[in-house]
């Protein structure tokens, strides 16, 4: 199983960053690669098991199921159901931790997945740069960093 991990320090309190990232349907509101999103079947966006269906700026569609959402741990875990990326058994977690010095928080985003060895480098690069780091960079810009 392959693993990707990216971390960053966001120049805002954990509460501010969690407020921005908590909404499972809100990814299009803060991530530059996302165009639009909806939760299927009219379910609440914080209900474990709900499915978000979103379009990327490229027009590609991704469907993901919410596996866990914790306000206590400031974390969200989800699985990809359908994606243009050649991955299977994809499970990712975005989580936040407070930085005790100043109004900052430590953000980490990780994923485990399976893919063909010939696709591993391209998938790893796309997740690392286009998804995880791009999202963290957008949060930093939003909070003035």
| Highest-level CATH class | Alpha Beta
CATH topology, what is it called?
Alpha-D-Glucose-1,6-Bisphosphate, Chain A, domain 4
- Shape descriptor reads globular
Q: Give, in spatial order, the strands making up the sheet with the most strands.
A: 1-7-6-5-4-3-2
Strand content: 35-45%
Within CATH, the superfamily carries the name: START domain
Provide a count of the helices: 3
Rounded mean pLDDT score: 96
SS elements, strand count: 7
Q: Which class of secondary structure composition applies to the elements?
A: alpha+beta
Helical content band: 10-25%
* SSE order, one letter for each helix or strand: EHHEEEEEEH
The whole-angstrom Rg is 15 Å
Could you say what the CATH architecture is?
A: 2-Layer Sandwich
